[in-house]
Design goal:
By secondary structure, this protein is mainly alpha-helical. Helices cover 73% and strands 0% of the residues.
Length: 272
Amino acid sequence: MGNSPKKAHRGPGMWAIRGQISRRNYWLLAGLGLVLPFFIWWLATLSGDNEIFLPKPWSVVTRIGTWWQEDALWDDITISVYRVMAGFLLSALIALPLGLFIGSYRAVQAFLEPLTDFIRYMPAVAFIPLVMLWIGIDESSKVAIIFIGTFFQMVLMVAEDVRRVPMAQIEAAQTMGASREELIRLVILPSAKPALLDTLRVTMGWAWTYLVVAELVAANSGLGYAILKAQRFLQTDKIFASMMLIGVIGLLTDQLFRALHRKAFPWLYLRG
């Protein structure tokens, strides 16, 4: 008698390690993950009417509408986006080549990495008095704080991305007579590009976290400044509104980076 056919083994589905889920399930779970905290927030506000400590979600939405109509919300969003982007782009402009050299050359790593490690543990807020003294209190000082908060972390992450390029690729190119310049331009940089774009995405998030710190420096506009001003007047709903707006802008920026990553490196998203 022949062997009876075995039933196909069903794996753990979405709970498999690095398993795949359908796009529909992904967006359902993503939506649930976003909605659930707001639902818990709404439930928490049902127990009392003291909105100084915890405003109702609808009060926050109303505050955003009033802010838009009466308090130039668009101007606050625009100036905050400018400060974050300027600090982030300046950081990337210097950190990318510097991290590339630190990750590629041991001598450069020995010379610069300990110093970078030393400075990156210094809190950005501690630099505010020096920034005000050296640069002043105009827009450049706010950009400088965001730069300081992201630059040193970015340098080390870029260097680590470069060091993850397999040595076998470098040795293969060397046996074919590639020069140092060709190794960096044709081997190391192309291999590290996906990781580098991910590093930029992560450090963009850090740039947004330093916005409130940057707008401590004699600011009179911006989302971070709005949080500090609302704190003085116990306008908790405006604090929540500012935080939510920063979160929405950050989420949109993050999704743009993810879309760019998929567009630039589609082979990384092919299913096996």
